[in-house]
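hey team, just a heads up i'm posting the complex here instead of the shared drive bc the drive is being weird again. everything in one block, sequence lines first with there labels, then the predicted structure for the whole assembly after. its two chains so it's a bit long, scroll down
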Amino acid sequence: EAGVTQFPSHSVIEKGQTVTLRCDPISGHDNLYWYRRVMGKEIKFLLHFVKESKQDESGMPNNRFLAERTGGTYSTLKVQPAELEDSGVYFCASSRQRHNSPLHFGNGTRLTVT
Amino acid sequence: SQQGEEDPQALSIQEGENATMNCSYKTSINNLQWYRQNSGRGLVHLILIRSNEREKHSGRLRVTLDTSKKSSSLLITASRAADTASYFCATDDDMRFGAGTRLTVKP
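-- predicted structure starts here --
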């Protein structure tokens, strides 16, 4: 099966600009997660979709971040307007079931805000 | 939050030695999972241990779970340079990770 794909792999934007990250999960995986890792620090949970519904968005830092999952397929994460502290690597992961099911990760989008 | 907390933060060993990493969590769990991250890549699932299991093996990996202490350990035996990576744990109640253990295996 094809893996989780994320686009773009890298993005460099200026403070105040908008960026949209995309994640295509493995087909048939209802659960989709977004995470962010800042260099050397924890992999911070952002949110969890089950199909098109937000199951848990408690990790979203503020209202500059908007995640969507249209039709329960691919997901987008928009940052508007971007701030310097938003820099990091954004990972997407998907799984078939909520429990007893491993997460499959994409290779991430490295976002640099200058 | 159930966030898995890994320790030590960093571990450096010689090829052929064993590496042990630990994970602690806060409340009762269904399952606990271990993942590996190579530099610049996404996390890769290593092993899942259920709450009613105490030990599980997969190749050179051995995972233990002590629910009374709310802790798990990952043992990598006969380490190789290719095992150099960061290792993370998470309970599948909320799939939250810590900062990981950075393992360096010197050839």
